[in-house]
Amino acid sequence: MTEIFPTGMDFLDKQLGGFPPGLVILYENAGAGGREFAITSMFNNADKFKIRYLSISKPVDVVKRELETAIPERGDVPDIEVVSLADFYFKDTLVPLKWVSGKGAGIELLKGEKSLFTKLVEFFDGLENNTYVFLDSLTDLARAAVNKLGWENFVDLLKGIRVYCVRNNILLEALLTSQIFEKGKEEEMLDQADGIVVFEWSVEREIIMRSMYFRKFLGLLPKIEKEKIIKYSVKIDPVVGFTISRVMRFM
Predict the structure, then answer these.
(1) At the N or C end, where does the chain have fewer CB atoms within 10 A?
(2) C-alpha–C-alpha distance, residues 109 and 19, integer Å
(3) pLDDT tens-digit series, residues 107-121
């Protein structure tokens, strides 16, 4: 039976029911709300299903500090399991490993160990069915892939991850910052996703606002079209996190 993962936001869940398993790309203008959407969803669903926070370039302690301050007035911070690949991300860069390693690593620690992408595959192989995963930077992963794998191999890896998630009832939400890659590469990444949720800054009556809309989503777009929804105005509340403040509909 296919698992449906609630977003943890009542308004969306009443409309859509939640997200089916597969790859969902949270495509955001920097700071427009994609990360806050994922964190709010994780916090509100921490007692409902298995959650894994996968960080590509941030150590575990840095991620946990960010989670503690993400919704500053919430009070309770759920214990989210964080997995970091930062050691492997930085091991072939100019950054000293002792700066980023949670193990106080010198250069000897990672000699002969596996690559970032091998560790990524091992991470997915170790997941249980019906798990929610937040990949905190598809941007960082793609940048590393350009140097290590080549673009075509990276796209094939995304295809394989997407199939694996669908077959094993895993929801993978991956954050991608807009306008970092050239348009063709960006579109090729987006094309691999089952769903694309866009978060952007907009100007309305000289006020800068955050907004969200669904650009693509298998199984959910018919519901959105039925409700005649164009986009949602959103806010980041210090108590509840990501919230929808207004719905814009077409007539």
Answers:
(1) C
(2) 40
(3) 445 555 568 889 999
CATH code of 10-85+129-249, in short, is 3.40.50.300
Domain coordinates in residue numbering, the chain: 10-85+129-249
Q: Which two tokens stand for residue 101?
A: 């390693």
Q: Identify which of 122, 47, 104, 109 has the alpha carbon closest to the alpha carbon of residue 78.
A: 47
* Residues counted in the chain: 251
Q: 101 near 59, Cβ under 8 Å?
A: yes
pLDDT, position 42: 95
Element housing 43 (H / E): helix 34-45
What's the one-letter identity of residue 50?
A: K
Nearest by Cα to 24 from 131, 160, 170, 152: 170
Instruction: Report which DSSP code applies to 103.
Output: T
